[in-house]
Amino acid sequence: MSIQAPEATALAVAAQNLTKTYGTGPTAVTALDDVSVGFERGKFTAIMGPSGSGKSTLMHCLATLDTPTSGALTLGGSRVDGLDDDALTTLRRDRVGFVFQAFNLVPTLSAEQNIVLPLELAGKKPDAAWMAELVERLGLGSRLKHKPHELSGGQQQRVAVARALLPRPDVVFGDEPTGNLDSSSGAEVLRLLQRSAHEDGQTVIMVTHDPVAAASADRVVLLKDGRLAGEIIAPQVEQVSSALARLGAAS
């Protein structure tokens, strides 16, 4: 498999020789083992692999939520590994969006307040036109004053997607974003992520265990035992399921 170098300007996020080890000595566990991979701007990529393959660790390192033991990490063409905590906090606030399985909405705030919260914490005002477009696109116009407990799971996740997209980050990370949704709501969220990549030029990176969800992506990156195990371009459900079965059988 050909892996692009972090210096390539078409890449929104890139890792070179990324390694993550937990513990030391004989009990040390290597969750990522010399992983080099790039993610193009304006593309939707799914990361998949068997349990324990390192897919969540890779996403956490790419998103700067975890610190790699060694290797280089770039975001928007700039090296970000080695930044101190304050710089990483600013980077995540200004340049990275997150959509989690558990929604992570503030229960005491309305949908609208949840959407604008990251910008308010940064002391910034939202772009009114972009906010209005997102609200219309996500079908949230009649739900903005409702609190999370008054929304369905699909509506809560749409609020989380709007919150992630409003600051126009370099990259949006999804951690099992359809894991708590029924099939209809999950498909709706996946269409929104597709549109964000293909129409708005966002870079979307999603960890999932679901071949149906992965088939919504432009590309699937496969991991096994902390190492790259291949990729699928323009994935189909059957292709993804077969690839995961092969990786599992090889365990």
TrEMBL record:
What the entry lists under InterPro entries is as follows: AAA+_ATPase, ABC_transporter-like_ATP-bd, ABC_transporter-like_CS, ABC_transpr_LolD-like, MacB-like_ATP-bd, P-loop_NTPase
Instruction: Fetch the SMART domains from UniProt.
Output: AAA
For whether the record's keyword set contains Lipid biosynthesis, the answer is no
Q: Which Pfam families match?
A: ABC_tran
Q: Which UniProt keywords apply?
A: ATP-binding, Nucleotide-binding, Transport
PANTHER family associated with the record: ABC TRANSPORTER RELATED (PTHR24220:SF685), IMPORT ATP-BINDING PROTEIN (PTHR24220)
Protein name as annotated: ABC transporter ATP-binding protein
Say which species the protein is native to: Galactobacter valiniphilus
